[in-house]
Amino acid sequence: MARITVGVSGGIGAYKAVEVVRGLQKKGHDVTVVMTNSARRFVGELTFEAITKRRVVSSQWAPGLNADIEHIALATASDLLLVVPATANTIARFAQGLADDFLSSLYLATTAPVLLAPAMNTHMLEHPAVAANLASLAARGVRFVQPGEGYLACGWVGKGRLAEPEEIVETAHAQLTGTASLAGRSVLVTAGPTFEDLDPVRFIGNRSSGRMGYAVAAEAARRGAAVILVTGPTHLDPPAGVSVVRVRSAADMHAAVMAHVADVQAVVMAAAVADYTPESVAAQKVAKADGGWTVPLTRTVDILAALGRLPSRAEGRPVLIGFAAETHDVLDHAEAKRARKGVDLIVANDVAQPGAGFEVDTNVVTFLEARGRETLPLMTKADVAVRLVDRLERLLGVPPVAGRP
Ligand code: CTP
């Protein structure tokens, strides 16, 4: 049994939150409901109070509430913060870090996982402002139960309808209980770019943000794996519970991976490792001179290919997962890479497609294994990570969990 705080914000889907609370209780969870002011226009507090047998919190100013600083007390006691429905306004307040009501203060104060079930009109959902807020929450590790398509209360038919209560309950339940499938296993994940120094102030880098690798590390850790995250320079905060090894160049990353490979059962190479590095690094800053500057480059070690040459899986080689960022003939190139590097699974990424690639929070990928391939629709990097770790579990021989493909 877990302690779940269900935040209800002011959308027509608020009435469905009643069914979600019931469903969570049926699974044995202890639910406390927090409502925004606008939510109270759609459903009465009494309804939630009657089914949860707990006081419903909707204001931080109610007398008696500050005796134990309620939003901090609840934030600390919750194992999950689930918001149903999450309106455009609530999403914006979370994304901006506002603390102007009880629910938004609670979001800032909790370190529990956060799951949002957005619901709004199709055009609102597609608005760049909403998309940017969703992306920034996703980058911070917030998870979503994606809205479905169908008839919307505003008369439009399209995407934006609150996911079905059963789906929300199942997702929340899986989030709370699905933590042990990788317990006892160790996974090494690489992420981010590498920087190849030219002199003490200049380097050759690339546009990788590290988000995909960080999402994979977070997901594997959430399922109980011991995760070593070998990361090139990024601006991201490492996910909770992973051990972080910071590196700069491709050579550093190679050394760090090789130092740990014997301790892990799987390696996910999500880093965008430089293929070339300057032949030498100038000890002092190179001053400009007339004419151009030609820098001789040499090949770096291909880390993934080196791992692929290790003795076979049967002799203890870890499961190997690589990425292939391509702009054309995506699947042919990726399949050739998979075979050439001797890896178990390649994640092919068509970086020419909108919504895929380096500096966005979404991705469009195909998983290629020797036994077949699967193309996924556009989804957040966090959701790609879930699907990828599902595959990884299968490659590791972890027994499948009901409901997972
Ligand atoms: N990789 C690696 N070591 C390198 C270069 C890449 O381990 N020195 C890994 C990446 O982490 C990724 C995969 O190999 O998992 C990408 O393969 P690669 O052939 O390097 O892809 P591209 O750089 O896109 O290749 P190419 O320029 O050959 O298309």
Q: How many separate domains?
A: 2
Order of the strands making up the biggest sheet? 12-11-8-13-16-17-19-20
Number of strands: 21
Q: Which molecules are bound in this entry?
A: cytidine-5'-triphosphate
Give the C-alpha Rg.
24 Å
Unreliable segments of 5+ consecutive residues: none
CATH class of the largest domain: Alpha Beta
Q: Any guess at the CATH architecture of the largest domain?
A: 3-Layer(aba) Sandwich
CATH topology of the largest domain: Rossmann fold
The share of residues in helices is 25-40%
Summed up, the helix count is 14
Overall mean confidence score, pLDDT: 89
Cα distance, first to last residue? 25 Å
Question: What would you give as the CATH superfamily of the largest domain?
Answer: CoaB-like
Structural class: alpha/beta
- Approximate shape: elongated
Specify the biggest β-sheet.
Answer: 8 strands, mixed
Strand content is: 15-25%
What does this structure look like?
With 405 residues, this protein is an alpha/beta fold. It folds into two domains: 3-177, Flavin prenyltransferase-like (Rossmann fold); 186-396, CoaB-like (Rossmann fold). 34% of the residues lie in helices and 23% in strands. It has helices at residues 14-26, 39-42, 45-52, 70-77, 88-96, 102-109, 122-126, 128-139, 165-177, 211-222, 250-260, 303-308, 330-341, 381-396; strands at residues 3-8, 30-35, 80-86, 114-118, 143-144, 148-151, 157-161, 186-191, 196-197, 203-204, 226-231, 243-246, 266-269, 276-278, 297-299, 319-326, 345-350, 362-363, 365-369, 372-375, 379-380. Strands 12-11-8-13-16-17-19-20 form an eight-stranded mixed sheet, sandwiched between helices. A five-stranded parallel sheet has the order 2-1-3-4-5, with helices on both faces. The chain has a two-stranded antiparallel ribbon with strand order 6-7. The radius of gyration is 24 Å and the shape is elongated. Cytidine-5'-triphosphate (CTP) is lined by residues 250, 269, 271, 273, 275, 300, 302-304, 322-325, 337.
